[in-house]
Amino acid sequence: MAHGNKDLTPRTEDRWQALHDFADERSTDGGLRAWMTILDASITTLEKAAWQGRALAEQTRTAWRLVESGASDMATECQQLAAEVGRWPARLKRLGITGWMLTKVAASYRFWGTRSAFIPMTQRDAALQALHRKNARRFRDTSLKQGGAFLKIGQLLSTRPDLLPQAWVDELAVLQDQAAPEPFEQVRAVLEADFGKPLAELFAEFDAEPLACASIGQVHRARLHDGREVAVKVQRPGLADIIEMDLALLGIFLDSVSSLLPPTDTPTIVAEIERSVRDELDYVSETRMTRIMHHELAKVPGVRAPEPVKALCSARVMTSEFIHGRKFTTVLDEARAAGDSTTVDRLLYALLDVYFHQVLRLGMFQADPHPGNLLVSNEGDLVLLDFGCTALFSSDPVSGDRRAGYFRVLQAAIIGDSQTIASQLNTLGFATRSGDPATLLAFSEALLKQFRDAAMRGAEGAEWPSPEMLAATARELLHQASSDPVDTLPADFILLARVFGSLSGLFMHYQPRIDVARCLLPYLMAPEEQAA
């Protein structure tokens, strides 16, 4: 049916409706309306990919016309075409697998609206939870099969029990360290190629079965000839090409859903996510960061990071000391089930303390704190793993020492100094469309209010917001951002927000009774103490 000249651009209120639905209805239906809108946009990804295929066909015709005319740039055009054609079979295969999964998930949620009308009220909640679990398994299985950047998305989703239905969080938890392993012979080939020696000369013992498998690499337990136990992290072969392909596909997806999100500095957000994913391929940098963090985190009571073994680290391999322990959330779940609130409070206090130490004192922080990267050692220490995604606050002529800038924002938030907050955020590079700081102040209030309240409450301990309180805050922020959006965000804030978003999910889920003021005040009183 032809639409003529009818304006099909969504009205502002329509574009925001899905997000308002999510904030209003999450407590009763898991935000199904918002989920449906996002899934519809996911299907649009396939349509855009099809149009990219048509563009490829046009590029082929252009190259052929150049061949016929003998144009001087024929060779360059044909080389570019050959590279693009070579990528498309794998790209289309990945699109087909992922798109079919999204289609099934979307269709099942669409059908729920009709199906639920015929389910007795007493059985409706259980039926909805079963549907959530079924769809979460679909997403999990596809992520495990696809690997690459899709697995990273699943890991990120698994850390947000404050936002997603519990069934999704439970099912996606396996993505944190249980991706499909690479065959051992490929692992052996990487080790022997990078170090130029047979495996038996490199290690006295090497366990062929990996301890953990993630999106970028897998970890094997081994023993050196001097008797030391080590963890050997080996990057998946050919991963660089897969990551670049996935980032291209995710770019299509983000373009599809951009109109559903609050207007903001999307290009910076996307660029920073892409940069952080690519950085995780750089094991040389990760080894350097791990060595620094091993030294610096030893200064934080009850916290450890492994020490790398320099002679057995390369561009695709990182070997470090083996620390015996168990997954962070497993220990928390067992302690909570046993009524051991002391252990829950102690471990989450240590987690908060170590991130204050990294952000406010070191000016660098591990930016991927999903539970697969956190252990509790046999001695009861919190262990941080995987520094492939590490953010550093730089200094520049305009914004100066950025660590100090964020520190001053926190100081001002504690005492309620809005004028200083607005000035510092402007210096750091935040900007609203109008230039008025109201939206920035609203977001800083939402992010930092908990710390101010905790500082005032002192030893009584923090009270973490409920899902209903979170939804009310989300509604207020959405209305504020829609009227005057944040158009410019500094790149270093993207990973900072990612970290504290993940941490807030853990704190809201476990509701620890900890004295945030006691944790925070030493950093507020001694900001000059920084790492060398």
Description:
The chain is of the alpha+beta class. Among the domains are: 12-174; 325-532, no CATH class. Helix content is 62%, strand content 9%. The radius of gyration is 25 Å and the shape is globular. 36% of the residues are buried. Mean pLDDT is 75; it is low at 1-36.
List keywords for this structure.
single chain, 532 residues, alpha+beta, five-stranded antiparallel β-sheet, four-stranded mixed β-sheet, 15 strands, globular, disordered N terminus
Write the layout of secondary structure elements.
Elements: H1 12-29, H2 32-69, H3 74-115, H4 121-146, H5 148-157, H6 166-172, H7 184-195, H8 199-202, E1 205-206, E2 212-213, E3 217-223, E4 229-235, H9 239-257, H10 266-279, H11 283-297, E5 303-304, E6 317-321, E7 325-327, H12 328-337, H13 341-362, E8 364-366, E9 374-377, E10 382-384, E11 390-392, E12 395-396, E13 400-401, H14 402-415, H15 418-428, E14 431-432, H16 438-457, H17 467-483, E15 486-488, H18 491-510, H19 516-525
Parallel strand pairs: 5-10
Antiparallel strand pairs: 1-3, 2-3, 3-4, 4-6, 7-9, 8-11, 9-10, 12-13, 14-15
Helix pairs in contact: 1-2, 1-17, 2-3, 2-9, 3-4, 4-5, 4-6, 9-10, 10-18, 12-13, 13-14, 13-19, 14-15, 14-16, 15-16, 16-17, 16-19
